[in-house]
Write a structure and sequence with these properties.
614 residues; Rossmann fold; nine-stranded mixed sheet; two-stranded antiparallel sheet; 13 strands; membrane; transmembrane helix; TraD/TraG TraM recognition site domain-containing protein; P-loop_NTPase
């Protein structure tokens, strides 16, 4: 019995020494060995949160592991005893224990621990694959990606390598359709090209800088804007991105601009469907005189109501000029040959999750000109998401990296409504404050509430730090304090010592911990997965990116010719609908009175041309 207690005490002391050694190695910056040792005793961040429980004490777990390994080594050495030379029994036991420790550590490192028990998960539908991420604590699984993913992390946190790229790769493996916004084209686009290279899903690429690697697209095609409400929302999306501050105030100038673009789109859709593109609509406004344009739009009864408020201001030339100057200055940003080329074709289907033609669309921005192309990209994504959010379609995914650089109307409602249509939403931001600046606090909270799987990387913003700390909540921590006292009476003195315990609430995840997270480290919550919460190091997976080869040719002359042709289409349209002006007819002079009876032969007769004068 004494020997047993001696072994247990020795192992507990060994646990203390191992814990101290691991802390020393971390101070030296050697993190691999401590991480492996912690995984061997299944010591996770969640365990650390509850370290007031005796079993969660680090030294106790290492002590128990030492007892188990020593015991297993003794058993194996006893089995080998008959073939062991005399005097080598202790050596065999020692080296056997070391070998067992190495084998066990290898199984843990490869994600195959020997003694880990996992509950059998509930069976999932065939069209609801699990998404998994490799971490130093094992595999982190998401059982239901359709509940949405929110990723928050500033530059250098590793959100692309650790999270977004694995999501792209697994989406391709599951043959997900969808759309991706690549703010730094072609960084993520090349990942899509590699991941979907052998997939049955057709990939499309749209960008405005390298036209040899861009398909042409028309988000206001007549088959897409089937009623005036769609045209109105397209106009609102365009102008909200051109002037976001004004869109928040909804001032009269922005509303007028939206009404004019709505009317132009709907007029072209009804009367000239072959010209129903954003370049034609914007050129119609820019190239046409205000009064002539209003007269043209008013010839369509459905459009007349949209521009009625503008038409009523025709009597005030100053007001009308101000309206058109504002609208034309907005649209002048889009008046380039490159934009006209991309937005005047119709090569990309917007029914991306259609079972008959599954597709994946990548829309790329230019890091040097993000605000120039944001209106067009937002319009494309807004149109695509509406078409995707329909029941009975293929599973699909919407991935928005640096999402606050876009404004998509009512996007905060999409994750909740699209979930039942098997559409997953991945919304990535640098910081929550950036998100609130674009959407506003109320809509930001609504969007966060609809994205149930959340990942938070390093941040220095106090508001973001406080949010994550609050989400993790508090825990009761037991503190032990000692006090001593000394008293003397009648020439003698005595001393006393007292120990007291107190329980205080402390943050489970302090703000300092979030601020000090390293690249690839994230804290967060999983709605349906292998764990409910985590703070761990994600392991970057090998990239599948391949360069996107040019798949079309377009010369500068072709771009300019297309630009000129659109302008000429609009001018000819206006000429065809403008009545030629006529000179004002003078008032017809009265005819001279004719005397009764026959006239004298020498009386001058009225000329036959008199009645047709003028």
């Amino acid at each position: 019995m004494f020997t047993l207690f001696f072994i247990i005490g020795t192992c507990i002391l060994l646990g203390y020494l191992i814990a101290i050694s691991l802390g020393f190695l971390r101070q030296l910056g050697i993190n691999f060995i401590p991480d492996l040792a912690l995984r061997m005793i299944f010591y996770t961040r969640k365990t650390h949160f509850n370290n007031h429980v005796l079993w969660n004490k680090l030294w106790l777990r290492f002590g128990v592991l030492a007892i188990v390994l020593i015991f297993c080594g003794l058993v194996i050495s006893f089995i080998l005893n008959p073939i062991t030379p005399r005097g080598y029994h202790s050596s065999v036991w020692f080296y056997t224990t070391i070998l067992l420790t190495g084998v066990y550590g290898y199984w843990i490192h490869t994600g195959k621990p020997l003694f880990r028990w996992q509950a059998e998960p509930e069976p999932l539908p065939d069209d609801q694959p699990r998404f998994s991420f490799m971490t130093v604590d094992g595999v982190l699984e998401l059982y239901n990606i359709f509940r949405g993913i929110f990723i928050c992390g500033g530059p250098g946190t590793g959100k692309s390598k650790s999270l977004i790229e694995p999501i792209i790769q697994q989406s391709a493996a599951a043959n997900f359709t969808g759309i991706l916004y690549d703010r730094k084209f072609p960084t993520l686009a090349e990942e899509v090209a590699g991941a979907y290279g052998s997939s049955s899903v057709t990939t499309f690429y749209v960008n405005f800088t390298d036209l040899t690697r861009s398909h042409r697209i028309n988000p206001v095609s007549p088959r897409l804007i089937t009623n005036a409400s769609y045209a109105r929302e397209a106009a609102m999306t365009t102008f909200s991105n051109l002037d976001y501050k004004s869109s928040l105030k909804r001032d009269i100038w922005l509303q007028t601009a939206e009404a004019l673009l709505t009317g132009s789109l709907w007029f072209l859709r009804n009367n000239y469907p072959q010209f129903c593109t954003l370049p034609h609509a914007s050129s119609l406004i820019i190239e046409t005189q205000p009064k002539a344009l209003l007269e043209l739009l008013s010839t369509d009864e459905e459009v007349r109501g949209s521009v009625a408020a503008i038409t009523s201001s025709q009597d005030s030339e100053k007001t009308l000029a101000s309206i058109f100057t504002t609208v034309q200055s907005y649209l002048a940003v889009l008046n380039t040959p490159e934009i006209f080329w991309v937005m005047s074709g119709d090569e990309v289907p917007f029914d991306l999750n259609n079972p008959e033609k599954p597709s994946f669309l990548v829309v790329g921005n230019d890091a040097d000109l993000p605000t120039t192309y944001s209106p067009l990209i937002s319009l494309i994504i807004a149109t695509a998401t509406k078409r995707m959010n329909k029941p009975g379609r293929l599973p699909s995914i919407i991935i928005l990296d640096e999402a606050p650089t876009l404004f998509i109307p009512n996007f905060h409602e999409l994750p909740a409504t699209a979930r039942s249509s098997k559409v997953a939403t991945v919304y990535a931001v640098q910081d929550i404050s950036q998100m609130e600046g674009q959407l506003g606090p109320q809509q930001s909270e609504m969007l966060l509430g609809n994205l149930s799987n959340q990942f938070y990387g390093r941040s220095t913003n106090p508001k973001t730090l406080q949010r994550v700390t609050t989400l993790f909540g508090k825990q009761d921590v037991e503190y032990l304090s000692y006090s001593s006292g000394q008293s003397s009476s009648s020439g003698s003195s005595s001393s006393s010592q007292n120990a007291s315990t107190s329980i205080q609430q402390r943050d489970r995840l302090p703000m300092q911990t979030i601020r000090d997270l390293q690249t690839g480290q994230f804290a967060g919550f999983i709605a349906e997965g292998s764990t409910n919460e985590f703070v761990t190091q994600f392991m970057a997976q090998p990239s599948k990116a391949v360069p996107i080869k040019p798949f079309t040719t377009v010369s500068d002359e072709e771009k300019r010719a297309n630009f000129r042709q659109i302008k000429e289409d609009v001018r000819q349209l206006v000429r065809d609908n403008t009545k030629p002006s006529k000179p004002d007819s003078p008032t017809e002079p009265p005819k001279p009175d004719q005397p009764d009876g026959p006239q004298r032969p020498d009386s001058p007769q009225p000329s036959d041309d008199w009645e047709h004068y003028g």
